[in-house]
Amino acid sequence: MELLQGTDDTVHPEVRAHINSLASALGGISSSEDGDYELGDDALEVLRDMKRWIRFYDDKTNRMDVARCIWEAKLMQGDLLPILAKWPGEQMDSAYKSRIVLACLELMVPLTWPLDWDKERMTANHHRHMPVLELAQVEYKRAIINFDGARILHTAVRAALPAMQVSVGDRSARDQAIIKLVLFLLRNLAMISPRRESKYQGDESQISRSAIIDAFSYQDIFDFLLMLASNMGDDFACEDMLVMEIMYHVVKRVDVQRLFMDEEQRRKAELGELGDIMRKESAMVNEQGGRRATRHNRFGTMVWVARGDGKMSTLSGQDALCSAATRYKKLDSAKSFKPPRRGKKEDKVTREMGQPTKLEPRATAQLRSFVHELLDSGFNPLFQQARRSIDREAPHVLQSHRRQFLSLVAWFLEAEQMRRRIARGRGQAREESGVSSFHLVAGVLTQEMFIMLNKALHEAFDNKDWHELAAVMRCFTQVMLTVQEMAESPNEQDEEIAENVLSRIFYEEATHDVIVNALKTYKDQGFDYLDAVTELLHHFVRILEAYSKQNVDMQIRSRRRARRSKAKAARDGQELADRDASEHDEAEAQRLAKDRKFDFHRFASRISAQPVVDGFVAFAKYYGDLNEAQLKRLHRYFYRLAFKQDMSVMLLRVDIIHLLYNMVKGPQSLDKSMPSFKEWEELVKHILRKCFQKIDQRPQILVEMLFSKLPKTAFFLEFGYEKQTVASNRALKPAAELEFKFTEERHRQIAIVVGAMLDRNESEHIDWLKHILTNAETERRSWAPPDATLDPEQDGSACPEAASEPPVIIAHADTAARRTAMFKNGYLRLLMTISGLQRLGPASDETPESPWVIAPDVSADYIKDSRHFIAQAEFSPPTFDEGVLAAHQLRRKPAPRKKPHQDDNGQDNNNNDDDDDDDDMADFLFPDGGPTTRKAIDDATKPKKPRRRHARSLHESDEEVDDQRAAKRRERELEKARRIKSALYVREGDDEFDQDEDDAFFARERAIADRARKAAESAPAALDATSSGHLKRKSDVLLTMSGSDDDDDDDDDDGDGDNDNDGSRNDNHEELSDHSGAQSETEYRRSHARPKRRKSSPEHHDSHMHGPNNDEASNQDADSDSRAPSSSAQPEAAARESESEPVAISKRSRIRGGFVLDSDDED
After folding, report:
1. What's the pLDDT tens digit per position in 146-201?
2. Which terminus of the chain is more exposed, N or C, with fewer CB under 10 A?
3. Where does the signal sequence lie (predicted)?
């Protein structure tokens, strides 16, 4: 419906005509003497038609024409309120009257609904009507709460009582709507207030906060709210947000301290405020004394000002004659450069919460009584139900409700603290029947509340919702102060609860980070946000310091980012390919949590950063408007920063020094009668004294005073030296070890590594290593013993010089880059290892300063060969197929798997592979020494092929399938391991031996040991007498002593190509494993009692006789799984045979029936 052409009416004439006709048909004042309001014949239908006009015209078309017409027709004051006053609650005895009252309420609620000043969605109609409708709502509020004919709000509540009498399970949708209708009306009236921009011409005392509190108390609305709050959750479930919102708009911006003052305290406070205002006024007058209007002001004034550089500046105006500070201020304001000014942001806090409210004495007493009763009876049920609704995101919860919930919790906790403080000052005991005052607010001190508080804190900070973040921080502050009072309570139960709560609050390091970062990110969020964040940080640091001193072993959960390994990323690449970028980033970088010991000094260093200092300096610029508590907060931070943390250099900036000086000595300084003025004066004096001392010590501070300071710069300026930092564990980790993919000869291995280093342009490392090897060869040859034939019969002790070993040769790094390469370059480390160098010390303790040495057992010829192979590879690098480089022949050496941590059920928590599960169960079931460890000789010569895993669909639940399979596999392996363990420990016939048989057994063992020792003493002479060209078979006794650990290592080290021997040993092992199952128990024991025969070179004999592990190897027992049964010849005969008959040709041994037979014995 559009306006007619040629008209300038704000509302369409047809709309106004319809509304006016409906208002006339509704009724009017009677012509009788009583002057009562008389309803029309169709009054109920008229009210319903008006509701339809509002719903289907204003709401659907987003216009406000109907509301404007209703205001102009004075429908609220002239019709609706007289109709509600016509039937008080006691006379509402018919359904018709109830319907009329509800129809009036259905019109009053949309007419008083809060207006949304959203500039993005406002149209021309909104700009035309909203200023008028805002003043209309103020008039509606004044008329409703000050109506003389009846208690309108009381009548509205009486209309909802029949619906509330029905139990919560039997209430219909209509009953719920009636209850909400009354609550919406109360919410709207509490929320309506004139904006600053709108100029209200009426009496503001009739629409003030004191007026609405007085109306709520007089019309029993406070009792109605108390009834709802105390029964919330039991009889009322969906009304929690509305009740909370009404309370929020009643108590917002009310000073809690003034609320709980008595008349005498209030009088003193008002007199103090008046004195402060008068002192400020007198100071202002004194400051402007030289500029007051006189008869000389009509004359012009121009002065010359001498600047420090010898130049002159011209100033005009008589204010330049007042003082030097005024002249310099005027000079600065006249500068040509002026920084750009941005438009002032709209303060959401001021728009929603308004200015601080001062209540009248009567309203103060009424509100204080309501707060007392709510804390005693309805606080816990209301806020517990509200928290549950917010947590489950109920349909009736709006975005602003969480902010209002947190603000209300903070306000009521502060009220409870004030009430407790007043009671403690009067000597009154709050505990009655075992219920302390802390139990009255226990509903907001639960674990669920802390979870919600942490969630809201992080979400508001991440979303940059500064208004909600300020509310969260105020709630967090009051919770901490309440818990601190609990910790100081004489009740042991309260003290224990407070200890538990503080440990939960301080446990998450992420909470520490958000609190500090909230102040670091301050820019222009407003004074309310700055006040909230500085208050929280002040109390958080103070309570955390006291708690950390009391709990020395305090642990916190630290979170760090860790990226997945490349193998896992490649394995999951197919699944991640179909996901979007955000999911991929979240999967790539995940947060890991780890407990660590809390260090308060480390946390305190974070609050000394420059952004935090700037935040407190910005707060200090409001020093003229701050109260005593806020000034004390600032004073404690500056004192801690300058003297407790020794970081006074952070305050040595020109603007900060100027601000501190103006606070105590400037033209607009703090009032000298303030209690904290002396403390501020002493603090500024000591800071300036430190400033002058620092300038004398380090004159470069004069330049740094112009700029903000980085942590390293501040530390240097404060202490005179750079901060010594320790490298992280990640930086101290050496390079990964490399290995060859294929088995190659040593010269071929050196050629591959040299070729890879040449491809990486690392020839300087090769030259350095050649130089080290050249010097090592020269030094090693100088220590070589003279060539002389030693007499076999001569004792080795006769030539001590010949028996001495050459010293260890240390490979010194010539540069720092070389030292780093020796630690972080895997190719250089591999080349050094192959060339004969080794690390000095265990690999786990290696640092960049750990030396590399050439051991004494490395001969000069070995070093010469290494240098020759390196030079040969440099001259002729190895070549491969097209596209294949030398680096492709190497791979990273796999690190040993760490055994997973088991839970109580024996299942690992890391979901590792099958090998981890097997190792885990082996450690669980078997102690040291059993079952038999698998030898390297048992491994296959070819690498095992990886098992193929069928690709599963992305839509399958792979985790559930894998968990089920892993559980079944663990059960099978565990059962098998239990059987193995049972067979290992429980054997038939173990308990059938008596004491005589045991004595005989140990006697035989001692005799065998004596014969073995005699054979070992006579073995060196026999070995030296043997010709170097022939091989001699070792005695069976010595073979028994040598142990089975050398079987798989000796032949590989000789390098003489005896691969046939390795193959024969593998064949023998396979035959043994095939026939061992068929042996009887007697043959099994007999075969284990026989010594083992093996072929060995003289070098092997020498290593067995003189090696460091000789004694240890001689005492090892033969295992049935890894050692073949030997010949039945006696050890002594075998020893004599080895001394008399040299073996020229190695004989091939075979196993038949559990016996080792040579090729000569087959006949």
Report:
1. 988 888 999 999 989 989 989 888 889 999 999 999 999 999 999 998 877 667 77
2. C
3. none
**Nearest alpha carbon to residue 361 among 259, 269, 274, 273:** 259
Q: How many CB atoms lie within 10 A of CB 1043?
A: 20
Tell me the C-alpha distance between 870 and 830, whole Å. Answer: 13
Residue 558 three-state SS: strand
For 341, the token pair is 């000014």
- The C-alpha angle with vertex 213 and arms to 210 and 215, in degrees rounded to 5, equals 110
Retrieve residue 73's tokens.
């027709």
Give which of 822, 848, 841 is closest to 833, Cα–Cα: 822
Given its phi and psi angles, is residue 635 left (phi above 0), alpha (psi -120 to 50 degrees) or beta? alpha
Hey, what amino acid is at 309? Answer: D
pLDDT in tens, 748-757: 889 899 989 9
Q: Which residue has the higher pLDDT, 385 or 908?
A: 385
* Predicted local distance difference test score (pLDDT) of residue 362: 92
Tell me which of 122 and 1081 has the higher pLDDT.
122
Neighbours of 1084 (CB within 10 A): 14
890-892 and 738-740 strand pairing: antiparallel
Residues 142/75, Cβ–Cβ less than 8 Å: no
The answer to whether residues 412 and 481 touch, using CB atoms and an 8 Å cutoff, is no
pLDDT the model gives residue 357: 84
**Residue 312, class by beta-carbon neighbours within 10 Å (0-12 exposed, 13-18 middle, 19+ buried)?**
exposed
pLDDT in tens, 649-659: 888 899 999 99
Query: Rounded to 10 degrees, what is the CA torsion of 391, 392, 398, 402?
Result: 0
Using a cut of 0.85, tell me whether the model's pTM lies above it: no
Cis before 931? omega within 30: yes
Helix (H) or strand (E) holding 480: helix 466-487
How many C-beta neighbours within 10 Å does residue 412 have?
23
Please report, for the chain, the start and end positions of each structural domain, with discontinuous segments joined by +: 10-197, 608-722, 738-783+806-892
Task: Decide: helix, strand or coil at residue 435.
Answer: strand
3-state secondary structure of 812: coil
- Give tens-digit pLDDT for 713-750: 888 888 777 776 654 445 578 888 888 888 678 888 89
What angle separates helix 95-111 from helix 152-165, to the nearest 10 degrees? 120
First-residue to last-residue Cα distance in the chain: 123
**One-letter amino acid for residue 920 of the chain:** D
Q: Rounded to whole angstroms, how far apart are CA atoms 372 and 615?
A: 37
The H or E element spanning position 862 is helix 860-875
pLDDT tens, 411-441? 999 999 998 888 877 766 554 445 577 888 8
Measured CA to CA, the distance from residue 167 to residue 174 in angstroms comes to 14
DSSP string of 1079-1116, one letter each residue: S-HHHHHHHHHS-------HHHHHHHHHSTTHHHHHTP
Phi, psi of 892 (to 5 degrees): -75, 135
Contact 506, 546 (CB under 8 A): no
534 contacts 633 by C-beta, under 8 angstroms: yes
Per DSSP, the three-state class of 360 is coil
